[in-house]
Amino acid sequence: MAKITHNFIEPESLFTILGQTEPEPRMTPLARIAAAAPLADTGCLTEYRPLRSRSIVSKVVSKRGTPFSHAINPYRGCEFGCRYCYARYTHEFLEMRDPQEFERKIYFKENAAWVLRQDLRSLRPGTVIGIGTATDPYQPLERRQRITRSIFEVFAEVGGFRLGLITKSALVLRDLELLQAVARRNQLGIHITITTMDTRLARILEPRAPRPDMRMHAVAQLRKAGLRAGVMCSPLMPGITDSRASISAVARAAAEAGANFLHAGALFLKPCSQPVFFQFVRENFPALEKSYQQRYGQSAFVSAEYRKRVSELVESIRREFKLGERTQFGEAFAKQRIEPVSPQPWLPFSA
Q1: What is the pLDDT of residues 184-193, one digit of tens each?
Q2: ∠ CA(161), CA(165), CA(170), 5° rounding?
Q3: Which of 36, 189, 235, 322 has an alpha carbon 20 to 30 Å from 311's alpha carbon atom?
Q4: Which CATH number do you get for residue 119?
Q5: d(CA 245, CA 265)
Q6: Shortest CA distance to 204 belongs to which of 80, 76, 287, 42?
Q7: Into how many domains does the chain fold?
Q8: How far apart are CA 348 and CA 330, in angstroms?
Q9: Concatenated DSSP letters for 267-333?
Q10: Helices within 128-186 (DSSP H only)
Q11: pTM confidence score
């Protein structure tokens, strides 16, 4: 048997006498599921596909000392296209090696609410869960798929958990009343990432994310609604956003918005993120290219000395603007006692 390819006949094997054929590359089960996912929709250079998931709450294994033990990511991939994004590596589990595919091939997790209910049965009350640790839960696709909303509808019924939401999107305000319901049954902290107040810089650094002023407006509205919300001024990029002036501009706006806290940490670059970020530096900050190659060429992390210097600077700015620390996941938060709340009937709020 032969197959026709590009108008010529290609034998199945050049070694038909020996009966040898080229073996197909082996794929992981997750990669096979992703490869078989049908195309649901398309956007600008972006494909959207459903992804079946047996579990939506994952155990966090990290050497970075992350403050949460579990994570929920309603999507795989993120359309915002942030040049520094460390989460591009997650597409490698789908056997996608091109870092650009992380922002061009987005997968949404089907039946997320049902799966979450099953996962929560095996978690202790008080478990610390980060929502949006490797993808933005309020990226553009959420407007239509409403996966994140369905997850919070579950937490509005089932209480007793410590939840931290991380997003760059003002779309979070769509779920304002729902988040209030969640906060009545759980301890909820909302982290809005704002790397810079410079709109021009934000546009080239985070090309499809909402403007910084829109994000800061979201912080103000969340606080007016009585929710715990603060600003993540991360990552701090050497020579780009790590100056006192740059961090202070974010802190000043955060204080004016009534933010509970300000948190900032230094940039780290996984190997999967380096090509995209180095290209960004080369095109927009060519004078810094060599220093970035030296800083991150051998390690994903900056030196301990730089981290210490940045930490002291951020603490000084935090005190200046009277902003608290991100204790939502910290020791003080962990010592608080949370009693489990049994599920009760709850009707979804209108969008």
Answers
A1: 999 999 999 9
A2: 145
A3: 189
A4: 3.80.30.30
A5: 16
A6: 80
A7: 1
A8: 31
A9: ----TTTHHHHHHHHHHH-GGGHHHHHHHHSS-SS--HHHHHHHHHHHHHHHHHTT-B--TTSSHHH
A10: 142-145, 147-157, 176-185
A11: 0.81
